[in-house]
Amino acid sequence: MARAKLSEFKAKQILTRALGIPFTGYEITSENIHKVVTINSGDKNNQTYVVKVDQGVKGRFKKGLVAIDKPIEQIPSIIKKWEQNGYKQFYLEPFINHLTQEEKYLSIERTRDGFKILFSQIGGINIEEHPESIQEIVLPYENKSGEDVQKIIHHLSLHEKSFTSMLKAFDDNYFAFLEINPLLINADRIILLDAAVEVDSSAEFFLSDGSWTSRDFNDYSSSTKTQEEKVVADLARHSTAAFNLTLLNPNSNLFMLLSGGGASIVLADEAFNQGFGNIIANYGESSGSPTTEESYLYSKQLISLLKKSTAPKKSLLIAGGVANFTDVRKTFQGVIQALEEEKTNLQKLGVKIFVRRGGPHQAEGLNLMRDFLQKNNLFGEVAGPEMILTGIVDKTLNFIQE
Amino acid sequence: MLNISAIRNIDPKILVLGNYPVIQSILDFDYLSRKQSPSVLAIIASGKKFQKYFFGKQQILIPTYPDIKNLPDEYKKQINLCLNVLSNRRILSSTEETFMTLPNLTGGVIFAENVPEKHALEIEQLAKKYQKWIIGPASIGLLIPQHLKLGVIGGVDARQFLQSNLLQVGDIAVLSASGGMTGELMNVVAQSGRHLSFALSFGGDRFPVLTPKDAFLTAEADSQTSTIIYYGELGGYDEYEIIELLKNKKITKEVICYIGGAIATLFPQSPQFGHAKAMAKNDKETAQAKRKALKSAGAKVGETFNEFVELINQGKHEKIRLHIVSNLQNMMDKISQRKEPLITTTISADIDGQPTLLGQPLLDLAKNNSFANIVGSLFLGRKLLSKDTENFIDIVLKTTVDHGPYVSGAMNTIVTARAGKDLVSSLAAGLLTIGPRFGGATNEAANHWLTGVSNNIKPEDFVEQIAKQGKRIPGIGHRKYRVDHPDPRVKLLLDYTKSLTEKRFTEYALHIEKITTVKKGNLILNVDGTIACIMLDILSEKEKLTDEQLKQLVNAEFFNTLFVLSRSVGFIAHFLDQKRLDEGLFRLPEELVAKI
């Protein structure tokens, strides 16, 4: 997989440990909220708190998903309100009183040429209004110290040790992107008011104990997914092959069961490029030589979504490029198995199926598919590489428009 | 950097790391390209010593080693290309090892997906340091028609090579982020009636070691390429580097491209597509922006895929050097007819109706070689390199032929013969007696000498270790002979070490004898131990076998073979002798049996 957002809780836990500063945050769910409130109740010099939705949502502040300077007793009701909107993971930490002018900005990104550092003496929500204040320095991997580092730490009044520890934590924990905004730096301490981290999800195996795991990816968008999408996400997690499924318009006409990372994009693009974006029901692809069983499970989810669509005329597009190593016969056997189970329903709905695929054992796979579709009155078209990749999209669109 | 012309000028010798069906497809490509021999030289994988594949209809064995370190020196020198199909966990370390170990490596392909970004960047640094090129990670590889298939590129089913016309040389370079689209574009090129100069996929990761920019410069530098076909996707800024090249006239060849991912705008948040890089975080990274920018820099850009294919079909008439590819169907038939053989052999078979041993007609072999030479050659599976080996085998065969009727094997042959049984039964009875206490200790002795020497164990420690386990040292000790009454056969055999220079194993065995004879006078180096150590030395020095190869011989019980062969003569002689004497059924006299 690719870059994934870490929960703020985990991000801060890793960073504070690296910086040698105390970590005072809590990971909150409806289950532990009361316990945390009890622990923090009582006289603590009128300490107030910050609570945030911690599910990788962009622009939380503007969306009202951050509450600042609240007494601990109010936290449960704030969380309850957010929960009603479907959020499940929250982050709580003591509020630190400070002046807006003290807020600074720092981000680090892993790029080809080195760590790209963006930094500014202006931070917080004001940074967007002052993009000109941001300075950029790329620290090459083989030379992570020297003049450039001095420039950064002087500009931010940051201890050199803090900066190098942060950079080391970034590298050792396979971070891809880190943004601390706002960053507070007093004479004697450094405070991460907000930290957003993206990690390289393919590195999980290489991490040392106490670092992150894929359980620390709190993605809000995944919690709003349909059952079918969740099953596919689960399938992807437990397979060497790759699967994804996103429902775009549940009641649309065109359902797509695509194969191959690149060809899938091209196929979906074609419908979009021709101005039919609105009839595309889903985007979904499998690649990397799935087994027959996996192809079956994947197809089942897609068919389930198709059945639920209220569109009057529906078609299923099963298409992919000329595979290099994915066995067409094996994967089609799985698809056919799923179609077989639902063939009566599909016939009733008047669904037509359009197929175009190439690769190892394509002749056998395409013949199986053609025979099945013709026998069951589901046949729209079956073609091999002699048809241009996107030709099958045209045929499908024609059918829907007829 | 990757230089296609330079690769066209080398004879590909590929090391494959990991075992994967891709290997057969490379061999099929080689065969259909009418190469005389396969381009895959060796495989790194655990388990077997060889992997079986087909070259055309013919089964072949590709040598397989557990680790790059185990590759013979000649292979290390010959290998010039590398295909890494190991899992993402082992990519960084194994790639560095190939760089360090293979002096004539030019570069290689990394197939694994999910290689951490950090590792990809480290590999890039290493590649610079060692001056190698790397395509990948997550790359299906590099294909040069008629010359090289380095990866699954072009397919794993030989029929695909014909469909996509991958065996004809043309002038179109296909460059793609996506492996699947590489196959698709090769198919489009084939259907347009044009042919490839080369094709490669740099992979859809965020930091491909060979960048799209590098790939474009490679295509520009390749004199055979006149058109570049490019498939890119949303995400990242690679296309802007290509645009710079176009604007600065660093790319002058015709460029036709398609950028996938326009559909991303349909999603509420820009989605992560299948490839790690395929996600647009800002406008510049969208497919639409890239298309526009490429167009303004002079590239031909398909707004739809159909339009893109149209642009390829319109391409200027190419000046191709067509290789005549006839009779391919015939060759394809051979591929589809092949059957997994029931038996595989390297030593002998009938060739053109003639019994042939080790590549020589049996009669030639018989006329020109001693029996000892033929025995040694067949046992090693190749012709002996040295006369000294032959001489030693000869003396071993002679000295172990018989040792009287007293020994247990001869006894059993005699008893069986006297029971009225036939030749083969009587011989078998004797042979079945050979084992750890009688005649069969040579191999175990060789195992001990080899372990001690190749692990640099001090002889004193070695003796101590075995003594602690309460075991005897194989090859040491005799019932009859003592240090003051030595075995004359041992003395005779030791004369055969005179032509040796190092004598690592013999020196070691003699050192051990010195230690053990201090403890007890009959703990001398016996015939088994002597044959073992001298044979090890001769095979090492005269037959140039590595310690690893010697270990394999030990595992196959090679060091017991000469005794078994030679003593068979003795057993047969005892059988015949008993028949000649017409001896009756043997029965033990009662006084020689103790009832307790």
Describe this structure in words.
The complex is a heterodimer of chains A (402) and B (596). With 402 residues, chain A is an alpha+beta fold. Chain A folds into 3 domains: 25-94, Dna Ligase, domain 1 (2-Layer Sandwich), CATH 3.30.1490.20; 100-216, 2-Layer Sandwich (D-amino Acid Aminotransferase, Chain A, domain 1), CATH 3.30.470; 225-401, Succinyl-CoA synthetase domains (Rossmann fold, 3-Layer(aba) Sandwich). Chain A is built from 13 helices and 17 strands. In chain A, strands 1, 6, 7, 8, 9, 10 and 11 form a 7-stranded antiparallel sheet that branches. In chain A, strand 9 (175-185) and strand 10 form a beta hairpin. In chain A, helix 10 (328-341) packs parallel to helix 12 (362-375). The longest helix of chain A has 17 residues, at 292-308. The radius of gyration of chain A is 26 Å and the shape is elongated. The mean pLDDT of chain A is 91. In chain B, helix 10 links the parallel strand 13 and strand 14. Chain B has 596 residues and is an alpha/beta fold. Chain B is 43% helix and 14% strand. The longest helix of chain B is centred in the last third of the chain and has 21 residues, at 561-581. Mean pLDDT of chain B is 91; it is low at 319-324. In chain B, the strands form 3 sheets. Chain B has a 7-stranded mixed sheet, with helices on both faces. A 7-stranded mixed sheet of chain B has the order 9-8-11-10-12-13-14, sandwiched between helices. A 3-stranded antiparallel sheet of chain B has the order 15-16-17. Classes of the chains: A alpha+beta (402), B alpha/beta (596). Chains A and B meet through strand 12, helix 8, strand 14 and strand 15 of A and helix 5, helix 6, helix 7 and helix 11 of B.
